[in-house]
Amino acid sequence: MNIITFDSDDKLNEAAANIIIGQIQTTPRAVLGLATGGTPVGIYKQLVNDYRRGMISFNNVTTFNLDEYVGLPIDHPESYHSYMNSHLFEHIDLPSSQCHIPDGNATDPEDECRRYDQLIELSGQIDLQLLGLGHNGHIGFNEPAHALIRGTHVVDLADETREANARYFTTINEVPAQALTMGVGTILKAKKILLVVKGADKADIVQRALQGPITTDCPASLLQTHPNLIVLLDKTAAGKLS
Ligand code: PGA
Prior knowledge:
Bound molecules: 2-phosphoglycolic acid
Distance between the termini: 15 Å
Number of domains: 1
Shape: globular
Largest sheet: 7 strands, parallel
CATH architecture: 3-Layer(aba) Sandwich
Order of helices and strands: EHEHEEHEHEEHEHEHE
Helix content: 25-40%
């Protein structure tokens, strides 16, 4: 595990974008796993700037997002389809046929999960998976549980997750109760994982995830088993690491 701590948000975002760009430059037809939430917004902004400056093309890249809410219309401003379009996809040259996000409105969600896993499998697995970290230790929407599920599946969102995401909706009741998420097995199969965490409110969970026991009660702790994990933290998120 390689942990790097940053004093400034800009430097952290730049470092994360450079790792992603490096992956694209060194891997013909790179497959990226992408995340949503507050954490990657600045990273995507940096990637868009780098694209506009001619530093990188996404033309041969394929992407798979970690998750999507169940039942939120695709064009709802808080759907992860909308998030990815507005923060990244509509600003770069990534062909839309190469961007994949689970369909949270599929009539048969189980079927959709299988289809998503097959697509990832067909792509030859993910070269670089970008991850944020939930306050309860979730990665993607893999919530703490007695057992974790390997592949893409429907998940009931934890109360803490709905509370954390209520900031994007008018009331907490509008936050969907379920999501489709890539499973921990698929995440751990990525050839490289880039975990990014910001904020003092995440310092405790960063410590548990990176230095605590490996347990399904903290899904991110399973990342300790990954042979190629890079962790980028701001100073405050790193505050409780020994
Ligand atoms: P955040 O979410 O980036 O909005 O803090 C991270 C997560 O829940 O995985």
